[in-house]
C-alpha cells in the first residue's frame, strides 16, 4: 500500500507532523496546499484573528451565549440562509448548528490554539522529506502571504515549491475545488506511474469530482480543510 497525503491550510501542519511522528508511513507524495505551517499570528489575517481568538475569546463566548442561545431556530435559519446567499453558497452547503454557541466556542478555541502553536517552520522535517513534498502557495492568501513562499523557496531551492498563477483563494474548497483536484491529479502522474496501472488511477482522479458537503452524511461533514482528505480517502478505498 502507498499513501498520498493532502493537507490544506493547517492540515498542512498536521501533514508535516504525521511525517515527523510516523516516518515509516509509505508516503509517495504529500501535497501542502496554501500551507499555514509557520507564523500564523504574523500573517495579515493572523494579526486580526490572534487578539480576538486568544485574548477576547471569553467575551465572544459570553456574547454568543447571550445573543444566540435564546434566539429562535427560525431566526437562526434565516440568518444562515441570508449569509449563504451573500456568499453564493445556498445550493452547495447545508450547515447544521453553525450558530450554536458551543460550535462558536469550539471554533474560537481551535483558532486560538492554531495562532499559538503554528509559529516556527519545521525545517528539519521538511528537509528530511523534501523529495516527497509539494508546496502550493497562493498570491492572494492572507493566511500565508507570498513572503512565506519566497522565504521557503530561498531556503529549499531544490524543493517542489509552487506559486499559484490563477489567483485561487485560500478557501479554494468553496468555489475552486475541481481546479485544485485537477492540478493534483496532473501532478501525481509520475508518482502513480511508479506503482503500476497509471491509466486507471489517473482516469479516476480526473473523472471523480469532489463531493459537495450536502451529499455527505452528518458525521462526515468536515471543515473545508478536511473535505479534500475525505474525497481522496474514498478514491483510495475504491482502488
Structural class: alpha/beta
Q: Helix proportion of residues, in percent? A: 40-55%
Order of helices and strands: EHEHHHHHEHEHHHH
Uncertain regions spanning at least 5 consecutive residues: 198-208, 213-239
* Gyration radius, rounded: 19 Å
Q: What's the main sheet like?
A: 4 strands, parallel
* Count of strand segments: 4
Query: What does the overall shape look like?
Result: globular
Average pLDDT number: 81
The total of helices stands at 11
How much of the sequence lies in strands comes to 5-15%
Sheet with most strands: strand arrangement: 1-2-3-4
Secondary structure layout:
Blueprint: E1 3-8, H1 10-21, E2 27-33, H2 44-55, H3 57-68, H4 73-86, H5 101-117, H6 123-128, E3 133-137, H7 146-155, E4 160-163, H8 177-187, H9 189-193, H10 198-207, H11 227-238
Parallel strand pairs: 1-2, 2-3, 3-4
Helix pairs in contact: 2-5, 3-5
Question: How is this structure best summarized?
Answer:
Pfam families: LIDHydrolase (PF10230). The chain has helices at residues 10-21, 44-55, 57-68, 73-86, 101-117, 123-128, 146-155, 177-187, 189-193, 198-207, 227-238, and strands at residues 3-8, 27-33, 133-137, 160-163.
